Amino acid sequence: KAFESADFAKKIIRKIGYTDAFVVAFFDGKRIPLDNGLSTIKEGDGDFRSIYQSSLDKELSALNASAADIATIAKSTKVVDATSTNIASLKGLFYTIQIGVFSKPIIKGPLLQLQPLFRNVTSSGLMKYSSGMYSDLGVATTKRDDIRNTLVKDAYIVAYNNGGKVSIQEATNVASNGGSSAFAKMPVGATKSVVKTPEKKEIADHEVDANEVRFKVQIGSYKVNLTEEVASLFFKLAGNHGLDHYNKPNGVKVYTIGAFKKYSEASEEKVHINENGIADAFIVAFHGKKRISVTEAMKIIRGR
């Protein structure tokens, strides 16, 4: 009933491993902002304060009586993560596939199949786990798709440089400037992945014959680097269709998804993208690597 006892309980809970625990407030069964709850306590009259203090004394007494036992249990059951590498200890750049955020170390279960595992411990104590270390974004994309098809449907690519998280665009810039020497080396003793790679995938867009017409879904154009959130959304929406981009003469990067032979296939993908975060996505057409109008593309296809 008292904030002080709830806050004390929070500290006990954090000590046993749930580092993201926090206090919330409810009034008449409805959750309210914590500040509102504290204001109600502060503005209470004499009778209210008397009842509040009585509740606080009883709750703190009960918590203090059990705190020692909880601490003993926590100490005897402390979990040590020996299955992953702490990213903060790594030098250099690499791409990896984030598979989840946890309050406790992964020590058992199917995710251990995704070795080598890496962990990034946040300021709040949460552990962001990722799988694999890649110097090629294309290879990382393939591995991400493998993981989505086997264990983690919402896995996505992230990048780290010298122990810190960077955007995909920043990573691309570091790789372009530093070459192969910019990339991190696999830690000694890291376990190899046991995730099976699916059989042959469709031909990537850059392998398409120069005379072929392809339809793509344009999802955005930017003069500045993509933020981590936008890049993650783009990769998530692209899925197995692949994310691509091309540069305009004015330096703007245009991002597209897929490379469809049929306009109807591109149209279906556009609807999916519209419904999942990018309402203004639209279809564009290419003849080889040259951008052409959709009307011109349809004429070329009909004329064959």
Average pLDDT value?
80
Report the principal-axis shape: elongated
Beta-strand residue fraction: 15-25%
Low-confidence stretches: 73-80, 193-208
Report, as a whole number of angstroms, the end-to-end distance. Answer: 77 Å
Oligomer: single chain
SS element count, helices = 8
Helix/strand structural class: alpha+beta
Order of helices and strands: HEEHHEEEEHEEHEHEEHEEH
Q: Main sheet, how many strands, which sense, barrel?
A: 6 strands, mixed
Q: Can you put this structure into words, describing what you see?
A:
With 304 residues, the chain is α+β, with helices and mostly antiparallel strands. The chain contains eight helices and 13 strands. The chain has helices at 3-15, 34-42, 46-76, 137-150, 168-178, 228-238, 263-275, 294-302, and strands at residues 25-27, 30-32, 84-86, 93-102, 117-121, 127-134, 156-161, 164-166, 213-222, 243-247, 253-260, 282-287, 290-292. The strands form three sheets. It has a six-stranded mixed beta sheet. The protein starts with a helix and ends with a helix. Mean pLDDT is 80; it is low at 73-80 and 193-208.
